[in-house]
Amino acid sequence: MSIDYSEKIPNNVDLAGDRKLQRALESWQPNFLNWWVTMGPAVPTQDVYLRTAVDVGKEGWAQFGHVAMEEYRWGVFLAERGDDRRIAFGEQKGEPVWQQVPGEYRADLQRLIVIQGDTEPASVEQQRRLGETAPSLYDLRNLFQVNVEEGRHLWAMVYLLHAYFGRNGREEAEALLQRNSGDLDSPRILGAFNEETPDWLSFFMFTYFTDRDGKYQLGTLKESAFDPLSRTCEFMLKEEAHHMFVGTTGIDRVITRTCELMREHDTTDIAPHGGIALNVIQKYINFHYSVSLDLFGSEQSTNAANYFTAGLKGRWQEERRRDDHLLTEAGFSIDLVRDGQMTQDEVPALLALNLDLRNEYVKDCQSGLKRWNKILEKHGFDERVYLPHVGFNRHVGLFREHQVTPKGDLISADVWAQKVDDWLPSEADKTHVQSLMRPVYEAGKIAGWIAPPSNGINGKPFDYEYVHLA
Amino acid sequence: MTDAGTTTQAQPSSGAETTPAVDFDREPGSYKHWKLDVDDAAGLAYVRLDIAEDGGIVPGYELKMNSYDLGVDIELYDITQRLRFSHPNVRAVVLTSGKDKNFCAGANIRMLAQSPHSWKVNFCKFTNETRNGIEDATAHSGQTWIAAVNGTAAGGGYEMALACDQILLIDDNSSTVALPEVPLLGVLPGTGGLTRVTDKRRVRKDRADVFATKSEGIRGKQAVEWKLVDEVIPKRTWDETVRERAEAAAAASSRPTGGTGIELPPLQRTESVEGIDYQHVHATFDRDRGLVEITVDGPDGGVPESLERVHELGAQFWPLAMTRELDDLILRLRANELELGTWIIRTRGDVEDALAMERVIETHSKDDWLVNEVRHYFKRVLKRLDVTSRSLIALIAPGSCFAGALLELALACDRQYMLDGTLDEDDSEQGDEAQIMLSESNFGTFPMSNGLSRLGSRFYGPGADGDDHIAKMRQETGRRIQAVEAMEMGLVTDAPDDIDWDDEVRIMLEERASLSPDALTGMEANHRFVGPETMESRIFSRLTAWQNWIFVRPNASGPDGALRKYGTGRKAEFDRRRV
Ligand SMILES: [Fe+2]
Ligand SMILES: [Fe+2]
């Protein structure tokens, strides 16, 4: 029996010529489909207007059409690169990159790939039931697009495990399907990926803040001396950009609608009018931002330093940085609490790589805030949204033991307990947001708490039938 | 262990980690330090130590007072081998000195002081193995070694005597036996001395303590009383009494008489930058990966099973030829290739042919002296592997012949990988898969130094558990066992299929190569020797380990340490803290 591999599994890794890889992927694929059916989107559909990557080139990477989701062609792609790529940092800087996993780094590389791979299906599981309350077919389609691409990202990581890590890699690939978000016995590896995404505001926040963490993690792996990992991550970053677009524009539209309702009813208390108040949006920002900061790990990390020195994981835009790329001498300034005061300290740069990455992330997050404040400004409001202090609501790192307000003041645990509902979504806020979540499945219609998008997908209008429900 | 007459400090060679290549080829005509006299009719051999002062294996020291270095011991090893294979009628061996008043002063101190750590360790390991070989000859070949200590035996000199079955000491009011390492050199009598004094000669531990700290040693009646020697013999009756004792030992020997010895011709060996090639054993170096790939060829077309033919073939008899080559390879790699930290072991040949070796050994090792020698020689070479400080990995692939005795090579390894299936699907037929086979000889024919078979060590368990497992294995002898089953039986570490084989093996080897060589050596030595201790295993696992620790401590090897200060007229300065 011959199978047209480029048809069944679009790829640019010569799957057709690699019998070993075929056998590995073929035994994995049924389990993946089984996982997709049981853990993937819960709303039954006939087909969805989706983008499928069939190639890495300009034409190939975004082909649109209605497809039945279980027939989606999850592919395997590596970004194209020149042959002469060199290691850009660490002890082996300047040497040719690796096309095979060096045994010395097998365990570390496998761990990095497994952790990244674990987040991909996790977010699909977290968002499984969201389709039941989609505010429009356009949004439903975007949710599914994000979901199938997270599925493809899982494929990308599984490809690496299958192609380069032998039997152990295959076992890890299986385990990626066996752990499930929120499962008490077998949860996803990172805590943040075990919380259900309960509503669409959370979904937009997640795609804005948490997918952005993913973008930065992929950015560090894109620098890796292990070339197949580097090229895989580079291609994933393209898709990741779309997920963040869903988040950015989603929050745009919620804020736009909030402005309209405030104007219409001349009050900030728009909950009774079916909207989401600006202070609730701020609390959601506070929550998702602070939880995402935790994903960067401790500010000081010897693991990150070891990965850097070994060439496994670089810094954001490593090659554009103008320093020695070794960091054996450099220092780095770090915020911390000492004797009850916020203060700064200087630590070896090599140990502060997680913080370096987090700082890049924080800068990037600011751009969304600017954008949303422009919407507020355009609608004539003086209120502004903002990012809370990096020490706010942290469960990982130097601020873990401290209570810090969104403005950055140190407070006692008692004061925190009194004020927490002002800063993080309260039960009442969540209940209200939940109450707004009613599905709107009619083409061209949209829920009352969110504005329609300014453009449709791929030149199609907003009222296009993006999804045919079953 | 003295090096009297020198007052200048030994110059530690500055490029201490570069050592000259060591060669283990010797033959009686070229001995520099020994004289071997064989009295075939009487069944006696006299082995006389008469060290050439200027005959050191490396420059930088003089071998005064019958003190030895590695070169001296390589010749001794050659003697022990030739006595066993070329002199079947020798039933007692007298080890004595060709120098007046001086039996042997032990290892040369200037040599030790100038040697890098790796050289010291290798030297001690080899000398230990040779001493064990002497005991093995006494126990299994009916060649009883008798030390005729005709002058002072100090340090390694007394340790050499301890390896013999009897120690006769000349009673001249000056010759002593001594272990002066602790008081004079700040190291241990590490060539089995401490262990044999208590375990073999049963010297009471408090007396052993006194003896090992008394640099001048003990002589005469007290030496007998303390069981340090068996007998003191007056000078004037020395020669006759020694001969009487030797004749008595020869008379009591089980070694069959009337045999004709075989020649041990020089090994045919091709050396190149890529490796070392013998007729049946091949080694390819991979310096980038820090490993050597060793392939042992099975017999081509089987092994003759008639005794006449075995004797006629002599050194060409495949089991003996292969064992000699493997022995030489192990010694060379250990001494000369320190950075090839992983040895991959493969075999190549037909399973049935390989098993012929077993059959000859099982059938004849009890009644034929040569077959018996081959068996014990292969046993000793396997023991060399056991104590080799390299990672040993067996790769069992189609076309290999890990069966019976050759399976011991795989079992001696730290890990065994067996290919499940074949690598080239299109070209192979069923039955081409890799197979291993157990035989009787995996159950005690080639014991390890802990007294257990390699299977016994592998499945060591509390009482019945371990025994049960071994009993089950016994039922599986003579059957071809493929990868999946071998895995289930616990005979291999992993059985990757064709998809995984290359990656699994490559990654495992690279991973291994990235680990600390010292930690690996310690870990492997711990895992290889489970369960019970014997005197032999105690010498390697305790005495040697302690000695090697002491060797790296500044109190011994530092600029002010005892090894360096010895012979300078100045005292060592110790760091007095006990650790
Ligand atoms: Fe992703
Ligand atoms: Fe994503």
Architecture overview:
The complex is a heterodimer of chains A (470) and B (579). Chain A has 470 residues and is mainly alpha-helical. Chain A has helices at 5-8, 19-39, 106-126, 137-164, 166-178, 200-222, 227-265, 278-294, 302-310, 353-378, 413-423, 427-436, and strands spanning 45-52, 63-67, 331-338, 341-348, 403-404, 410-411, 467-469. Chain A is 47% helix and 8% strand. In chain A, the strands form 3 sheets. In chain A, strands 2-1-7 form a 3-stranded antiparallel β-sheet, with helices on one face. Chain A is globular, with a radius of gyration of 23 Å. Chain B folds into 2 domains: 28-251, 2-enoyl-CoA Hydratase, Chain A, domain 1, CATH 3.90.226.10; 270-528, 2-enoyl-CoA Hydratase, Chain A, domain 1. Helices cover 40% and strands 16% of the residues of chain B. In chain B, helix 3 (117-140) packs antiparallel against helix 13 (369-386) and helix 3 packs antiparallel against helix 20. The longest helix of chain B is centred in the first third of the chain and has 24 residues, at 117-140. The chains are: A mainly alpha (470), B alpha/beta (579). The A-B interface holds A 20, 23-24, 100-104, 106-107, 164-167 and B 496, 498-500, 503-504, 506-514. Bound molecules: fe (ii) ion (2 copies). One fe (ii) ion (FE2) binds at residues 150, 211, 214, 240, 243 of chain A.
Q: What is the compact description of this entry?
A:
The complex is a heterodimer of chains A (470) and B (579). Chain A is mostly helical.
End-to-end distance of chain B: 26 Å
Task: Please estimate the helix content of chain A.
Answer: 40-55%
Count of individual beta strands of chain B: 21
CATH homologous superfamily assignment of chain A: Ribonucleotide Reductase, subunit A
Q: What portion of the residues of chain B fall into strands of 2 or more residues?
A: 15-25%
Major sheet size, sense and barrel closure of chain A: 3 strands, antiparallel
Oligomer: heterodimer
Indicate how many domains the architecture of chain B comprises. Answer: 2
Q: Give the mean pLDDT of chain A.
A: 93
